[in-house]
Amino acid sequence: MASQGWEFVEWTDQEQHTLSDQAAFTYTMPASDVTLAVRFEADPVYSENPEHNAISIYPNPVRSTLYISSPNEKLLSLRVYDLQGEKVYASYKESYQYTIRTNDFSPGAYLLYLQTTIATTVHKVIFVPE
Q1: Same domain, yes or no, for 76 and 37?
Q2: In this structure, which of 48, 74, 81, 112 has its CB flanked by the most CB atoms within 10 Å?
Q3: Is residue 19 within 8 Å of 12, Cβ to Cβ?
Q4: pLDDT tens column, 51-75
């Protein structure tokens, strides 16, 4: 369980492959040495910094492609959750821009978590059928 102010994200192996996005899971150890890592992120907060709030998320509602851009600071990660709390998409590359193809998502409302060096913010996005 994460400490207050932190949220569990995933377990990874030494090659940064995701083993599980569940906090508790069963792992069968191989015969060789292995290193497991756990990743936590700060809980979402609202930023009063006007530069941070310059993040663009469009179009919303989205039919096929969602664009996210941050002209002033690098995005460290992006996660999409359905309203039942299931993570349906994640990207952990550092970038000023993200593009998400939404064709494989069910229509409905989703929560988009964007982490920067300053804060993690949450945005509601609506996916509609094409």
Answers
A1: no
A2: 112
A3: yes
A4: 555 789 999 999 999 999 988 888 9
Whose tokens are 């002209």? That residue is: 71
Question: What's the average model confidence in pLDDT over 76-90?
Answer: 90
Cis omega (within 30 of 0) on the bond before 59? yes
Q: Any idea what the CATH number is for the domain that residue 88 is in?
A: 2.60.40.3080
Q: 3-state DSSP: the chain helix, strand, coil percent, rounded to 5?
A: 0, 45, 50
- Whole-structure pTM value: 0.64
Any domain includes 66: yes
Question: Same domain for 35 and 69?
Answer: no
The β-bridge partners of 112 are 80, 123
Residue 60's domain comprises 52-127
Average pLDDT of the chain, as a whole number: 82
What string of H, E and C letters represents the secondary structure of 40-93? Answer: EEECCCCCCCCCHHHCEEECCCECCEEEEECCCCCEEEEEEEECCCCEEEEECC
Provide the percentage of residues in the chain whose pLDDT is more than 70: 83
